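re: ur question from yesterday

yeah so i grabbed the chain u mentioned. its 214 aa long if i counted rite. heres the sequnce exactly as i have it in my notes:
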Amino acid sequence: MARKSEQHPRPPVGADSFIYDPELAAPEPPAHLTAIPEGALAEKLRLLIAVEAVFERILFVFIIGFGLCLAALMFAQVVLRYVFASPFVGIEELSLLFGAWFYFLGIAYVTRNGEHIHGGILTMVVANRNAIRAVRLAMTVLGIAACMLFGYYAIKYALFEIQTGRLSSYMRWPKGWWSASLIFGFVGTAAYMVLQAVNQAVDLTAHLRGRSGE
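ran it thru and got these structure tokens back, copy pasting raw so excuse formatting
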């Protein structure tokens, strides 16, 4: 039976160069689980998932808002500098403010969706799918430890600036507004990584109870 290739190479190849045969090729590695559970686990955690869905929408709106504000500031600065030859120095401080919130909230958001950078070479050299699941769980736990370590010092610094009431150089705004992004970013990222670790642990346990090669 002829199989149709799923690849569509560009010219000058001009023809399908590869046809995947599931009877000959190795099985695909298990999917990289995110912080949001699915299936039976999702049914058990319906309340948590519902609350998280509201938080995710709020987080998404703030990320979009800070991103648009940052883009608007950059556009305004270009116009002021090159059209009116009168740049506003305060825009540089404001761009750092919006950029910091955009960046640190974005870290938490991509962690939630499992879109942060993670290596995939393991799946090329390890055939046992449960071994892959175990290594991914271990890496998530190490990621939690790293996030908590760096987050501790970042939050400690942020709280110091908030408590001392330092002001920015030009706008004279509380520098705690900038530093607070560290708190939300690291706390959100650590929370999502914990949820991801729980999701991976439940998935690994379920497969270990089944066939070891799955």
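noticed a couple things. Helices lie at 40-44, 46-82, 90-113, 122-125, 129-164, 176-209. also Residues 70 and 95 are 6 Å apart (CA to CA).
anyway ttyl
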